[in-house]
């Protein structure tokens, strides 16, 4: 059996790492909604809300503070930037055709793979190749409030109703 040891995350980027948890929750909620035949309109509203209030601010922080720690042609940086672009493109497709449930499945799959890549490869690489002092300076810049903790989403389609 392949056991996974917890990843040691530098405190400077721990909040970005914790934000990935919200992304994985979004993936789970999308899949739950599709599996349980929840109205695609309801799923779409939550997905777009999550993109605006959590994913986009998270992406901007990574692009502004983390990615510049790597050379512009670094393969891990170019992969992360490409995946951000792919996720943004999927968001635009969802806006244009929000009734197509396969789009939500694709979005969930791409987002999950992206988060796993950042957690398992990119963040570890950045920690290993960046000085503690520079990471600490980046950490100071990254202090930000978690948008989702301030806003309660009322339509919690992922919670089963008792019948």
Q: What is the CA-CA span between the terminal residues?
A: 39 Å
Helix count, per DSSP?
Answer: 6
CATH topology term: Four Helix Bundle (Hemerythrin (Met), subunit A)
Oligomer: single chain
By secondary-structure content and strand pairing, the structural class works out as: mainly alpha
* Amount of beta strand: under 5%
Q: Which parts are unreliable, with pLDDT below 50 for 5 consecutive residues or more? A: 145-150
**Overall form:** elongated
Helix content: over 70%
Average of per-residue pLDDT values: 88
Largest sheet: none
CATH architecture: Up-down Bundle
CATH class: Mainly Alpha
Radius of gyration: 17 Å
H/E series, N to C? Answer: HHHHHH
What does this entry show, briefly?
This protein is an all-alpha fold and 163 residues long.
How does this structure look, described?
It is a single chain. With 163 residues, this protein is mainly α. It has a single domain, classed as Four Helix Bundle (Hemerythrin (Met), subunit A) (Up-down Bundle). The chain contains 6 helices and no strands. It has helices at 14-35, 40-66, 75-96, 101-129, 132-142, 147-150. Helix 2 (40-66) runs antiparallel to helix 3 and helix 3 (75-96) packs antiparallel against helix 4 (101-129). The longest helix is centred in the C-terminal third of the chain and has 29 residues, at 101-129.
